[in-house]
């Protein structure tokens, strides 16, 4: 394929450090983090300033060149991978990685979109403040991608999703103009809050270039415990009691099944069960506060005593030092990697109302086991925000390819139950390419029409991440118009 005539102009804008088209440089950017999607592109643009992004997008708009914005490429739904046509330009903001300002008194930090999440956390800590967004990929994911996907993480219960942590944004729109809403104001009642169109839009409405993020007082004490639940239903009761007894100081509340502890202990080095006897269901919970550590530990101990007396837990281990706390969180992170050695897996990132979590897991376990005998459900997650990563491991002895061939049927079972309980098919990973057609099936038709109208108004030529997030007017699974689903 001959080079597009606009490529030379883009190269001139970027300079030698801002352009790559060699196979070795492009390869890691052309496949998603799970290896599910492989694409091609015209080249990789690495702008260093908002002005460069603006000039590139203006050129692409003029020539109608599709653009795929990409952060750290840690996404789970193929939302930052170009398609196979090779007609799109990849734009990665990794060179725009500066922390521009920290305002400790105003509890705000201004950053460029290419900043690594972990670096933002550290900058906040250095200023005696706390940025609560925390993900497994925080050492490599970029904040622009976190914003574009409205990432979740382990601290949503107390601090909210990424959307709740943003005060202001700067973004380059599909025509190349720069929207400057880069403000630290807590109150600004001057019309539509346009930043929320960009947050969670997965690069389909513009490219986020800078952000003002909320900071919080740095927790000075943390108390962490691993609890053996009396039953799955006890998880919701334990959460409610924890929030009430702690004055809503619960920062994390993670549901962990016995199977996950077993897999992690078997496959991940330096990981072991925290308790002698692991029941079917456990919870890793953490209190955090600004007081002295002994006070926080005492609050946790008092809470656990009450939970034991109430019959909600049968055993618990409280971390006595930072090393033990790290061990508990290493176990939580290990349960993700531990599933792979057990063979093929099928993953779901769903949410339901918190009180419906036990019902969802029971119904889903029963339904997938009936559909695929021997299947090994592997549900874990945040519970406090209703988010369950409902993963499924292949039956022992089943060929991985045969199990993966059941993926669409198992997705349908899980998503049907999720919808019946008033839930969402995507809690924190987004829609991307993977769930686009599922959104057509399970999304509200009016909401989808409004989303298409917004996309058409802001990006009439559909150059921003085309084929991502928004389903077409027809549900490809059923081959019938979405409108027929309307009452």
**Share of residues in strands:** 15-25%
Backbone structural class: alpha+beta
Separate helix tally: 16
The CATH topology annotation of the largest domain reads as Uridine Diphospho-n-acetylenolpyruvylglucosamine Reductase, domain 3
Q: What is the terminal-to-terminal distance?
A: 48 Å
CATH architecture of the largest domain: 2-Layer Sandwich
Q: Report the biggest beta sheet as strand number plus sense, adding barrel if it closes.
A: 5 strands, antiparallel
How many strand units? 21
Mean pLDDT: 94
Q: How many independent structural domains?
A: 5
Task: State the share of residues found in helices, binned by percent.
Answer: 25-40%
> What coarse outline follows from CA principal-axis ratios?
globular
CATH class of the largest domain: Alpha Beta
Return Rg in Å.
23 Å
The poorly predicted ranges are 474-487
Strand order of the largest sheet: 5-6-10-8-9
InterPro entries: FAD-bd_oxidored_4_C, FAD-bd_PCMH, FAD-bd_PCMH-like_sf, FAD-bd_PCMH_sub1, FAD-bd_PCMH_sub2, FAD-linked_Oxase-like_C, FAD-oxidored/transferase_4, Oxid_FAD_bind_N
Pfam family, one: FAD_binding_4
Keywords: FAD, Flavoprotein
Biased composition (Basic and acidic residues): 476-487
């Amino acid at each position: 394929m001959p080079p597009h005539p606009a490529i030379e102009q883009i190269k001139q804008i970027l300079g030698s450090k801002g352009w790559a088209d060699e196979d070795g440089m492009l390869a890691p950017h052309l496949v998603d983090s799970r290896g599910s999607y492989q694409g091609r592109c015209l080249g990789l643009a690495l702008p260093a300033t908002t002005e460069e992004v603006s000039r590139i997008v203006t050129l692409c708009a003029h020539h109608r060149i599709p653009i795929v914005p990409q952060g750290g490429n840690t996404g789970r739904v193929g939302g930052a991978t170009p398609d196979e046509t090779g007609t799109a330009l990849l734009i990665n903001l990794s060179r725009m990685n500066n922390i521009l300002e920290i305002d400790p008194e105003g509890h705000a930090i201004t950053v460029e979109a290419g900043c690594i999440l972990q670096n933002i956390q550290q900058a906040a800590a250095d200023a005696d403040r706390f940025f609560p967004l925390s993900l497994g990929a925080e050492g490599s994911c970029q904040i622009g991608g976190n914003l574009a996907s409205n990432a979740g993480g382990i601290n949503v219960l107390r601090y909210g999703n990424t959307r709740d942590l943003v005060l202001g944004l700067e973004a380059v729109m599909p025509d190349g103009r720069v929207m400057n809403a880069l403000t630290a104001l807590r109150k600004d009642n001057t019309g539509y809050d346009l930043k929320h169109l960009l947050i969670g839009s997965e690069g389909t409405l513009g490219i986020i270039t800078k952000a003002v993020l909320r900071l919080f007082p740095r927790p000075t004490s943390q108390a962490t415990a691993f609890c053996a639940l009396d039953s799955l239903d006890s998880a919701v009761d334990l959460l409610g009691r924890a929030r009430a007894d702690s004055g809503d100081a619960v920062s994390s509340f993670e549901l962990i099944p016995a199977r996950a502890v077993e897999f992690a202990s078997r496959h991940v080095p330096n990981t072991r069960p925290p308790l002698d006897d692991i029941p079917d269901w456990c919870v890793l919970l953490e209190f955090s506060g600004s007081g002295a550590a002994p006070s926080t530990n005492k609050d946790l101990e008092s809470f656990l005593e009450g939970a034991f007396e109430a019959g909600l837990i049968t055993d618990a281990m409280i971390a006595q030092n930072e090393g033990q706390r790290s061990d508990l969180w290493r176990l939580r992170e290990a349960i993700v990697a531990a599933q792979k050695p057990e063979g093929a897996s099928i993953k779901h990132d769903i949410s339901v109302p918190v009180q419906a979590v036990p019902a969802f897991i029971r119904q889903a376990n029963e339904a997938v086991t009936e559909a695929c005998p021997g299947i090994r459900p592997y549900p874990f997650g945040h519970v406090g925000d209703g988010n369950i990563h409902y993963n499924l491991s292949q039956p022992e002895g089943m060929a991985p390819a045969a199990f993966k061939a059941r993926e669409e049927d198992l997705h349908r079972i899980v998503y049907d139950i999720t919808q019946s309980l008033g839930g969402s098919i995507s809690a924190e990973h987004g829609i991307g390419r993977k769930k686009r057609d599922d959104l057509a099936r399970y999304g509200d038709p009016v909401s989808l029409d409004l989303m298409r109208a917004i996309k058409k108004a802001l990006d009439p030529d559909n150059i921003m991440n085309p084929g991502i997030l928004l389903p077409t007017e027809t549900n490809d699974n059923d081959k019938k118009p979405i409108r027929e689903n309307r009452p």
